[in-house]
């Protein structure tokens, strides 16, 4: 199976500081077919039960832990509870992680950064943008 990991890494960052094979293995451990596909070869994303398993393995509760929102924001996920192939790989490159253990350690930092206010505006803006249904500019209560 061929995955477009190396090409995506070049598009995400100039000099990735992660191991391409490790991030490929990390991605395929949780990946599944998610319609619509953004790539013709291989699983397209991490969603549903696979997403919940990833969160569990990271030690975060996606329903209550701000780290889940911070991670989604860092990956620039286009929808809640789903990491598309490009989002997952580029997110790993941006966070400089290529294994579950590395991401678990980074999640602690993401949580601390939000709770201290360091990244709260960015995470809030991201979350609001994902939660608003187009073409709305306000969130319905």
Structural summary, described in words:
The chain is mainly alpha-helical. It has a single domain (5-131), classed as Recoverin, domain 1 (Orthogonal Bundle). It is 56% helix and 4% strand. A two-stranded antiparallel sheet has the order 1-2. Helix 1 packs across helix 5, helix 4 (66-75) packs across helix 6 (100-115) and helix 4 (66-75) crosses helix 7 (120-131). The longest helix is centred in the C-terminal third of the chain and has 16 residues, at 100-115. The chain is globular, with a radius of gyration of 15 Å. The relative contact order is 0.16. Residues 18-141 form the DCUN1 domain.
User: What can be said about the biggest beta sheet?
Assistant: 2 strands, antiparallel
**What's the number of structural domains?**
1
Overall residue-averaged pLDDT value: 85
> Class in CATH?
Mainly Alpha
Proper CATH architecture = Orthogonal Bundle
Radius of gyration: 15 Å
* Helical segment count: 7
Strand order of the largest sheet: 1-2
Principal-axes geometry comes out as globular
Order of helices and strands: HHEHHEHHH
Euclidean distance between termini CA atoms: 45 Å
Helix content: 55-70%
| Structural class by secondary-structure content | mainly alpha
- Tell me the number of strands: 2
Binned strand content: under 5%
CATH superfamily: EF-hand
Query: What is the third-level CATH name, the topology?
Result: Recoverin, domain 1
**Low confidence ranges:** none
């Amino acid at each position: 199976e061929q995955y477009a990991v190396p090409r995506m890494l070049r598009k995400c960052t100039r000099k990735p500081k992660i191991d391409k094979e490790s991030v490929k293995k990390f991605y395929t451990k949780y990946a599944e077919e998610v319609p619509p596909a953004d790539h013709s070869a291989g699983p397209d994303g991490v969603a549903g039960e696979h997403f919940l398993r990833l969160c569990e393995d990271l030690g975060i509760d996606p329903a209550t832990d701000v780290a889940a929102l911070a991670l989604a924001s860092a990956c620039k996920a286009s929808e809640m509870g789903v990491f598309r192939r490009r989002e997952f790989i580029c997110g790993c490159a941006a966070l400089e992680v290529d294994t579950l253990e590395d991401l678990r350690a980074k999640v602690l930092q993401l949580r601390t950064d939000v709770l201290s206010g360091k990244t709260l505006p960015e995470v809030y803006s991201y979350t609001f943008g994902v939660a608003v249904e187009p073409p709305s500019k306000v969130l319905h209560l």
